[in-house]
Amino acid sequence: MIKRILTVLLLFPTLVxxxxxxxxVMTIARxxxxxxxxxxxxxxxxxxxxxxxxxxxxxxxxxxAKLNLEDFQGAEADCDAAIQRNPFVVGAYQIRGxxxxxxxxxxxxxxxxxxxxxxDPENITLWHNLTLSHIQKKDYNAAKEDLESLLKVSPRYxxxxxMRGEVSLQQKDTIAALNDFNKALELDKYDPDAWAARxxxxxxxxKYAEAEADFNRAIPLSAKNAGNYINRALARFHQNNLRxxxxxxxxxxxxxxxxxxxxxNRGLLRAQVGDDNRAIxxxxxxxxxxxxxxxxxxNRGLLRAQxxxxxxAIQDYTTVINQYPNFLAGYYQRSEARRxxxxxKGAEQDEFKVMKAQIDKQNGVTxxxxxxxxxxxxxxxxxxxxxKKSDKNMNNYRKIVIADDSEAEQRYTSxxxxxxxxxxxxxxxxxxxxxxxxxxxxxxxxxxNFHKYIEDLNRTGILPKRLRITNMEAPxxxxxxxxxxxxxxxxxxxxxxxxxxxQEIESFALKNSGYEVRxxxxxxDFYAALDEQIPDLVLLDxxxxxxxxxxxxxxxxxxxxxxxxxxxxxxAKTTELDKVKGLDLGADDYLTKPFGVMELISRVKALLRRSxxxxxxxxxxxxxxxxxDSKHEVHTAQGKCDLxxxxxxxxxxxxxxxxxxxxxxxxxxxxxxxDFTGESRTLDMHIKTxxxxxxxxxxxxxxxRNVGYSLNHIRN
Length: 716
Prior knowledge:
By secondary structure, the chain is α/β, with parallel strands linked by helices.
């Protein structure tokens, strides 16, 4: 979090040299270094060194380039050469200290920083890195002495308080750590590391609500820090806020898709809530990254068995048992899976292994279990719900993982940009090629893409402009947009000659905009569809073959189920009186033929936005059932009902669709989601418990045999 090496690029005035050419090459080399072209800069520094090997500067700057290329030995050697030529260059000691840290030569790094501080005793960066070197050696007393000196130089340096707090945590002094973190926040309340550091102390103190509150302050200040989301998920997990924890793991993996802890813990949570298939996907990812992660393999085996993939489960159990021959839970689970596939002999062999181990335990005979974690301290720190990644006790396979020193990468990371080795690089693909009239001209990229058919088409003169093949399409100006939309509307008007074409164009345009569309040529089919489902919006033509559109509108507004459904009238009538009549009857908008498809889509979107804000209800009532959505409470004549989340959502959906028979598939899709793979009995059990909790009002939920359920008034 805060264990980051501070680096400062020190640019020294170039010594006056006798040869102008050397000065010029040195300038070019430093410019290449500035623009992060480290290989090129080294080439130029080499030229200067060959010409004037007695200068310290080319060695110093070449060391800086090598450091950024992660050639740490080379950087150290160049710093040696620079110091040999000029022992008073503070930056050379600093760079050599960084290079030595990368090679785990902490004693040498400490020596370098002390030497540099001798020449520059008020350099905050040097004190900072010296402290971190002592921390890496676990010399916490020396680290605290360094920090005392640093705070004398800069009393308001918040990083010093954060580092001292972490040293206190290593010494098991949480009170002192908390005081330092509070001091850091007092100095800078916008420091995300300070909030996160204090939150971690709160986690250790089991103050999970306070820890979550601190993470809530840290995350907006450092939104792309995946670790904060993972740690907040832990705080939420301990508060049984599984939904919140799941959301945090999703966010962390959006930021860092390869995060081990995120995938492992999300897999456990998904398994806990019954999302077995997606839990398997998470463990697949973990195993792909770490094939020897036996806890992930065992968890995947359990999930495979849960989903009916017994052979896959056996394969996973066998992998774990081969690694940990005394892991009894593996034998027990494998015996169960073997029985499922009819392997009675194999199941009995596994059961015998378990039975023998139990008898040996009763007789005081113990086998060395290689699956057990020997670090008892770490095992205790994991608590009842968590374990550290370094914990190899297979009996803790169901515990979520928290971060510890074993999983952390090298703490000392350089702030220098431009590292080229072993670096995750985001590769941006070239834009897709397209056919367009407008190509963005570039002075750098002037390639011409040719296709014979397109060239022949351009020669015909059919098109208003020359058609181009390019992946550098230029954005249209406002005037160009108006011209093209006018052309679209002109062509649309030419196409629209009868009602059938209108319906087809409307449906095509709306479907392409992401809407689900149903068209009707007669009112009978339309009314039948309303009994099944209430639409979000109705496009209604006035001139219909079997019933006037205005009459249909009137019926919609008289029906309590459709009174709030937004309606757009579509007609060829253009008089003001016609529009007023339709609007007076309850139409929300009016479109006159011919119209442009872009106008249609725009009006639909606007009307849906308005209706969404109007129709949003906070309180739903049916008979003596009152559902307060803002408070997430349900009351009946008998009093308040304590419902689970799924029971609440199920009741709400039934009330919103009162009188409509809802099929089992529709209820499962709406309440449990498209990807739910559980049994249909899940719905029946929830209906049963919901009826019981509602008491006498539970009779309002009626079963429609072989179809589903509906909420209806009870007739006397």
